[in-house]
Design a protein that fits this description.
The chain is mostly helical. Helix content is about 50%, strand content about 10%. It has a three-stranded antiparallel β-sheet with strand order 1-2-3.
Length: about 170
Amino acid sequence: MNTRELIDLARSREAALGQVASLMGEARGSAHALDGSVEVTVDALGALKRLWLAPSLASADPSRVSALVLEVVRVAMAEAEQDCYNRVGLLLGEEAGLLVEALSGRAAPARSSDDDPGMTVEEFQRLRAERVGERRFPAPAPAPAAASASAAAESGEDEWEDFDPASLRSDR
């Protein structure tokens, strides 16, 4: 890279950094209580944009309601923070997001050690097998190809009986 290209790159980065504050204002996070009694929307700067409380909370213990609202706000803030990282990453690149994480000393919510990574394919398959039960009919004895096809047609079994749609990739 020559000097002119470096200067142009620095200027474009400076202009992009100037947009970060507005991106933070645009970033949003929403969350709700599991029972549906509280819904919250916040921005990445911490401003409460929307708060909805179920009428049933009017007669609830105020300390319980405040604890519930604060927990839902915490979850919404994590979502808003991640939305902000996503927006900054699109504008400035992933390296800028990693730099912000390093400077703040906090990982982005999606990389947080306490974030639930979900379940593995193996765990899903095991739980599915438990839920639907193992194969209901014993596997037929191997037969010659022609005899096997006619036997399957006579018994009503088809070739898709063992097909598991969960084995398909979802990224296509």
